[in-house]
Amino acid sequence: MSNRTKTYMLITLGEELLLGLTRNGHLTYIGNQLRQRGITLHSNYTISDDNQDIDQQFAFCWERSDVLITTGGLGPTVDDRTKEAIADALGESLVFDESILESMEERFRQIGKPMSDNNRKQAYRPQSAIALENPNGTAPGLWLEKSGKILIMLPGPPNELQPMFENQVVPRLEKLGLIDQGESYLQIRSIGIGESALETKLQPLFDQHEQLAVAYCAHQGQVDCRISFPDSTGREKRLHQIGEECRRLLGADFLGYGHDSLPEIVLNSLKYHNVSLALAESFTGGQIANAITDIPGASSVFNGSIVCYSDEVKINVLGVPKEIIRKNTAVSEPVAEAMALGAAKRLNSDYAISATGYAGPNRGTEETPLGTVFLGLHSAGGTEVHRYRWKIGRLGIKRRALYTALDLLRRKLVGNK
Amino acid sequence: MSNRTKTYMLITLGEELLLGLTRNGHLTYIGNQLRQRGITLHSNYTISDDNQDIDQQFAFCWERSDVLITTGGLGPTVDDRTKEAIADALGESLVFDESILESMEERFRQIGKPMSDNNRKQAYRPQSAIALENPNGTAPGLWLEKSGKILIMLPGPPNELQPMFENQVVPRLEKLGLIDQGESYLQIRSIGIGESALETKLQPLFDQHEQLAVAYCAHQGQVDCRISFPDSTGREKRLHQIGEECRRLLGADFLGYGHDSLPEIVLNSLKYHNVSLALAESFTGGQIANAITDIPGASSVFNGSIVCYSDEVKINVLGVPKEIIRKNTAVSEPVAEAMALGAAKRLNSDYAISATGYAGPNRGTEETPLGTVFLGLHSAGGTEVHRYRWKIGRLGIKRRALYTALDLLRRKLVGNK
């Protein structure tokens, strides 16, 4: 329980985040890591690293947090001077650490590159800090305990930050009893039902349970609903019972418990039924295959995708009859059907999904205007084609097709039981 | 110049961001939109929407900003109560707006769904605010001018927020003279050279120019370097001259000026040389094709990709000789070579890239352990294969292969001139 009352804050440094040049992946990663260990990150502050805001923001957060994490600003270039600013704010002086220098020299020897002079400044640390080793880069992280609070400074590159967090920060926080295992809420994922329709459906059930906290979160055609009791001890069973009632109310719109993504759920379902999948992707351009192959172990059920960005490839590789394209254009129901069938045959698979559509800049025709999408689904029972129209821009259309196609397959597999 | 002194702040609301369940895409989008119009977003605050932090954070930002943007918290569910908190903080009362209700009712008629009672609360607005229409959702945005400051409240879903920002917020800010066109700095993108090596190479040149501001930003094997003068008037030409010197110093590591991504640069280069591209993707699983087809107009040079997640597909669709796989395993130089050749032939293309490797969980063999990657590049001059080993996890390996493969092709095309 005591962890609940500890305040974790995150400062992410970098003008590139504010300029929209880089996504703030550190927030997603660290928020997720803490959540898995029972902590809700209190807040995240993204500021530039080239002005006095570091001092101000750091002082603000240091006063209000128990654990303060910073990312970025430890690099070797002239504009990375976080350490100086933070040492000032803490009343610490920077000391040159020979052992940091040695690790860095060792690292440069390993990768066979000369060390620049400007790397030397990475060997300075605030006097009370200890260095966190960085096997994937030159800048060490820093860990500082002062006035009953903890400051954790992490390097900016994700491939340096992430192993450092999991291998060095998490064990230290565990030792101090500042994080725990497991989660204390239940998440119910739904798909194909809007946020307010979901609330209308579930809220009367939730209202029967005193003290039950409920939060909704909509994303990509899905709505997640998290439920929890303020004191989780011994309530897991009741949460699960409530979850099961939600599942019954939602029917096929129930996606799953927890944090499994739609691609994970579809892959697990394919494995459960011991069937294989192939794709024929025109305008989705490999996005569906990419989402599936992000999941470890996909190869046991996923055979591949024919990304057919020209009519020629549809005809020669997928075996779509030239005549069908000539008569109907490539964005049509008959072509989606032939693509799905072709993928199933050529890739020798039980199920196949096809996608053809106008995502732009091609504005389509009068009958099939920009935003028109055909998704085909081939199974032992035959091939069905669904038509959609979305006015959400090229990338929006690609992305919605990905989730819609996977959900079509999921619903087919659920009905298949 | 006066815009430069205006402070823009962004508050992104939502526990799902702090829990790492959703990426903070609003920061990337809004930061990018403002940057393109000469504004650097000062800071971004991500806080939860279910506690008193809204009041505190809002008051903090309202005091320090000229333009304050908030996202999220306008939805119909019980946990969305941003408007109440902000109206309180501004000393405004919430009024029920019949015309908002009418637009919402019209919207529900259009999509043919009944309006829930809980949608009604979306029709309330602070008394001095005007509604920003939301053709893609139910919650209107809000625009409020008070005490010489501007508050802009936007809905959370990206497909609602983005058109609202571009069609309604930007024109209003332009009218008030708060944003301008074009950028006033020069960005130089490099690839294949580390951050400190880049600084060592370029900094002596930069040091010759008084008042020149320099910022480095590393991401995905690339390092961007932004240079600017404090007063941009009439300095564009000098910035460009400095850029040209950087280009000469960097040679083939010079990627381009501005914000074009590596996939865009490669596509433009293919178009410039009027040549076509095909892919054969094993462990990258369609990621390279997906990145290419994210770019509008890709179809003029990109024919497609064979995502071959099984040996069978490599053999049957790409025509890789069975014997080569049996003798060398699927992760080998000869197979990468045969895949690239097969893709070029089957998809009738001038260039072809192939990718085969062990990204995990398959740990590979003693000779080709986990993390080993072969990238093939076929061109008129023949087929070359490059071998790598990366210890950066499944998704890291997929992503690095994407950028490495595109850069191999880019360098080949540059040499082709």
> Number of helical runs of chain A?
14
The name CATH uses for the topology of the largest domain in chain A is: Molybdenum Cofactor Biosythetic Enzyme, Chain A
- How many runs of DSSP E, i.e. beta strands of chain A? 17
Please name the two chains that share the biggest interface, counting residues whose Cβ lies under 8 Å from a Cβ on the partner chain. A-B, 106 and 107 residues
What would you call the shape of chain A?
Answer: globular
SSE-based structural type of chain A: alpha/beta
Could you characterize the architecture of this molecule?
The structure is a homodimer of 417-residue chains. With 417 residues, chain A is an alpha/beta fold. Chain A folds into 3 domains: 2-175, 3-Layer(aba) Sandwich (Molybdenum Cofactor Biosythetic Enzyme, Chain A), CATH 3.40.980; 191-257, 2-Layer Sandwich (Alpha-Beta Plaits), CATH 3.30.70; 262-415, CinA-like (Maf protein, Alpha-Beta Complex). Chain A has 14 helices and 17 strands. In chain A, the strands form 4 sheets. Chain A has a 6-stranded mixed sheet, with helices on both faces. A 5-stranded mixed sheet of chain A has the order 14-13-15-16-17, sandwiched between helices. A 4-stranded antiparallel sheet of chain A has the order 10-11-9-12, with helices on one face. In chain A, helix 3 (53-64) packs across helix 4 (82-90). The longest helix of chain A is centred in the C-terminal third of the chain and has 23 residues, at 393-415. The radius of gyration of chain A is 26 Å and the shape is globular. Chains A and B meet through helix 1, helix 2, strand 2, helix 7 and strand 10 of A and helix 1, helix 2, strand 2, helix 6 and helix 7 of B.
